[in-house]
Amino acid sequence: MALVRAARSSLRRSGGATGNYASERNIFYEGISPLRHPSPVFENAAAGFNSSYIPSMRMINQLCLGNRGMKFTPQYHAQAQMVEVSDSEHESFKYPTLEATKHGEKPRVVVLGSGWAACRFLKGIDTKLYDVVCIAPRNHMVFTPLLASTCVGTLEFRSVAEPVSQIQKALAKDPNSYFFLASCTGVDADKHEVYCETVGDRGVSDEPYRFKVAYDKLVIASGAEPLTFGIKGVQEHAFFLREVQHAQEIRKKLLMNLMLSETPGISEEEKERLLHCVVIGGGPTGVEFSGELSDFIMRDVRQRYAHVKNYIHVTLIEANEILSSFDVGLREYATKHLTKVGVRLVRGVVKEVHADKIVLSDGSDVPYGLLVWSTGVGPSEFVKSLNLPKSPGGRVGIDEWLRVPSVEDVFALGDCAGFLEQTGKPVLPALAQVAERQGKYLVKVFNNIGKQNGGKALSAKDISLGDPFVYKHLGSMATVGRYKALVDLRQSKSEKGVSLAGFVSWFIWRSAYLTRVISWRNRFYVAMNWGTTLVFGRDNTKIG
């Protein structure tokens, strides 16, 4: 057993109002006021502490956060990576901790993520039965089907972002429910704890603040990351389209290139490069963004950037066929329509990405000014790091009730989860409707468990979870620009069903997504944005 010298700290934390940053480390917790702590803290080494999830520590501070009845044990800062440590090197260190629930308290459900699956679960969970803690690197849900529209000013960004605390109001109001703006870095299923570190703007703090949260039940819904297939230069030079921040960056880059191209002295070749927008990936996101971009060019660019209107164009590159999950007739319609509105369709595979061009596998170069990468999603680094069974494709493995079968009280859903091979079920596609319906199903499971007093840790072993989860595909929709869209209501590619294309489909597409927007506030925003865009055109103001 290793011995650890006592660490001494004389740091002081000044008090502040709810939602402020602690002066020493600039740490934010929703609804928690930082209080002063006494000076030197001493900790001695002790055997038996599992440090496989807690790497070497560098600093101790004792922080007591009592505004909402929450006490934290002393803090230690750790290196970013997780390392395995032998038993002889175990050290007794303590993270600031949201401690385990006590007898007489409601069981605590910890939810990792704020995407479709997590937010549908949060919306329906019975907070009379459970306290809820949500841990996510963003404090809002993104309505992804309309995200492409924000890139060109058809919609404003706030129209597609719904605060998590509005979806589940207990996170803002209940004394033992919290939202933490943080990323989970590890899970200790034996101790029923998750390890986290805060996220924030650069410059807010010199290093992340680390803490741990005890849970009775854990729901992993941390989502997925864009697939780059290890292609050199994608991370450095391409824009993804998964978050509001991505859409803001795309819009800023697009408008910047339009304005730069009008600068005196810019060569013809450079103008063509700056105004060449390349989209990689012919799935629904890539096609919808290409359609929105062509609309923006046809209506707004030609009116407001007349000097360069003949230079701007869009290229969509796909290795196979665009919209491969749609009906053949709809794919043909989309191909003809996109070509008609000026989108150049290229079949090819990207080999390498440079700052001003991409190189295809056939050796040809494609210069670009804006590159949007939309080739699907895969497991995140966090999911890959978890010592849990994996489904085909590397997602967290689950059974028919969305449980992680090798550990107690852990569930997973959404893009980060997939059925294990032994279930005999295929891994479901990373779609919003899959995640939403899994979240809705898990709400029923949890509320049933809670009503039978099985919410506490290790107390639901003998409780029936009811019928297993069954997914039925409701169909797919995609807009292709110029008031045209595709609606495919088949339940699978091999089955027959209703398929529509054209203006009627576009009306169905807009109506369906307007009703799916979570809050009435955002429905109003979306409807107003669509109306003002129709009358006045898109907003092309560059801010920032």
Automatic annotation (TrEMBL):
Cofactors: FAD
Listed EC numbers: 1.6.5.9
Pfam families the record matches: NDH2_C, Pyr_redox_2
Domain External alternative NADH-ubiquinone oxidoreductase-like C-terminal: 473-539
Subcellular localization(s) per the UniProt record: Mitochondrion inner membrane; Peroxisome
Entry's Gene Ontology cellular component terms: mitochondrial inner membrane; peroxisome
Domain FAD/NAD(P)-binding: 108-439
Record field: catalytic activity: a quinone + NADH + H(+) = a quinol + NAD(+); a ubiquinone + NADH + H(+) = a ubiquinol + NAD(+)
Keywords from the UniProt entry: FAD, Flavoprotein, Membrane, Mitochondrion, Mitochondrion inner membrane, NAD, NADP, Oxidoreductase, Peroxisome, Transit peptide
Job description of the protein: Alternative NADH-ubiquinone oxidoreductase which catalyzes the oxidation of mitochondrial NADH does not translocate protons across the inner mitochondrial membrane.
PANTHER family for this protein: NADH DEHYDROGENASE (PTHR43706), NADH:UBIQUINONE REDUCTASE (NON-ELECTROGENIC) (PTHR43706:SF4)
Family under the similarity heading: Belongs to the NADH dehydrogenase family.
Descriptive protein name: Internal alternative NAD(P)H-ubiquinone oxidoreductase A1, mitochondrial
